[in-house]
Amino acid sequence: MISLAVLDMAGTTVADDGLVERAFTEAIGAVGVSERDDRFPDMLAHVRATMGQSKIVVFRALLAEDLAQQANSAFEQAYSRLVGQGLCEPVPGAEQAIRGLRARGVKVAFTTGFARPTQDAILDALGWRDLADLALTPGDAGRGRPYPDMVLTCLLRLGIEDVREVAVAGDTPSDVLSGRRAGASVVAGVLTGAGTAAELSGAGATHVLDSVADLPALLT
């Protein structure tokens, strides 16, 4: 029996529509790397390959520490501004799925690779502050994906007794790896974001779904 569903945000419950790449382009430009820079294509490729991971970790792989911190701050500001402009929509059926799970007694937690201010901006823009039982960022758990820390922190904070009672859903291989490493019995990859079916299956997804809207039926 599943007692907790841990759900990613951008690309899984929240439509991304290229916002991460737009914010990254602005952030990397703020530290001197324009789209015309020879380094830009490889940097963008790295961002795409590491979707779902903590953004400061992504920037640290590309830049020296001081520039990584500047770029991360610029990214959070850019993404929050785009969200504030109304460029943030839920994945169709996501809210209904979450409400349905909670009505059945399943606790729901949001996790993200964003920092707290950006996660809060998304929740406020969608009116989702009270939609889930818990919302965590990498900073709340110690490490972000693909480590299991956020999933396990959700389990501990919400009083779940067994990792086998946990289901995880996300749109990236990092989401899937995080769920598998945490010991969740259901680790579903969804096709509304960055990952392909082959990538999600290759990372170890127990199921690949068209959308998080299909999760309640799977858990039933």
The first-level CATH class name of the largest domain: Alpha Beta
Main structural class? alpha/beta
Please, how many domains? 2
Which segments are poorly predicted (pLDDT under 50) over 5 or more consecutive residues?
Answer: none
Radius of gyration: 17 Å
> With helices defined by DSSP (H or I, 4 residues minimum), what is the helix count?
11
How is this structure best described in words?
- By secondary structure, the chain is α/β, with parallel strands linked by helices.
- The chain has two domains: 4-16 and 90-219, HAD superfamily/HAD-like (Rossmann fold); 19-84, DNA polymerase, domain 1 (Orthogonal Bundle), CATH 1.10.150.
- It is 48% helix and 14% strand.
- The protein has helices at 19-30, 40-49, 55-62, 65-84, 94-103, 116-126, 138-141, 149-157, 173-182, 197-202, 215-219; strands at residues 4-8, 14-15, 89-90, 107-111, 134-136, 166-170, 186-190, 207-209.
- It has a six-stranded parallel beta sheet with strand order 5-4-1-6-7-8. Strands 2-3 form a two-stranded antiparallel sheet.
- α1 packs across α2, α1 (19-30) packs across α4 and α3 packs across α4.
- The mean pLDDT is 92.
What features would you highlight for this structure?
single chain, about 220 residues, Rossmann fold, 11 helices, 8 strands, HAD_sf
